[in-house]
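B., you asked whether I could sanity-check this one before it goes into the benchmark set. Here's the sequence:
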Amino acid sequence: MAKSAGLAQKFFIGSSDISGDVSAISSWSTPVQTLDVTGIDLSAMDRLQGLVSGSLAFNTFFNDATGAQHLALRVPNSGTPITWALGQSVGSVAGMLQAQGINYDPTRAADGMLTFDITMDTYATLPVWGVMLTAGLDTDTSGASTATLDQGAQTSAGAEAILHVTAFTGSNFTATVQDSANGSDWGTLVAFTQVTDIGTERVTVSGTVERYVRVTTTGTFNPVNYAVSFRRGEATDRVSY
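And here's what the prediction gave me:
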């Protein structure tokens, strides 16, 4: 990995790719409450970790086209999966969040610019950092597999994955995250629900995750546009899978 600028990123919310409508992401935070438990035998503060939360704030341009900013954000969503891809390659770092919108505030500037400031708070999950298993937004015309991602070693604390299907033509589509110990023999790690239209889903699994991961698609479609973000659980996670 290397230093990089914040260019050529992608932003998916639910079944929408609103990357071209987002002008700036101003906050992606995970605030932690602290509990003061200082005894009378100490001369400094003693604190425990309390509740952990998360929030996201960003600015968008107005766009009322199908699948664009206005239709995706005008009604505050509850528990919507979000992926912020910091690149458009398999393995690019990705912010992953399930959140609910709490506002949709427009601003009309003197020069005529119409923008909206959006704030979303976590919904029963925390913001986490994972990776992309697709090259940004992938387009398949038939069943296929993405490039294999080598993550270095097997882990044992489960995983989570988010699927965004932003365009679909056909009868059905199924995306599956597979893992492998050797990069040749594959098994199912995450089985997303089969879809017959655009949609989104966040899935968590427990147990062992092998070193290599990829996405495989099956179904009857031509074409489908979809994105998958993925994160391995860690032993130090503050939330369980």
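One thing to flag: The chain has a mean pLDDT of 93. Otherwise nothing jumped out at me.
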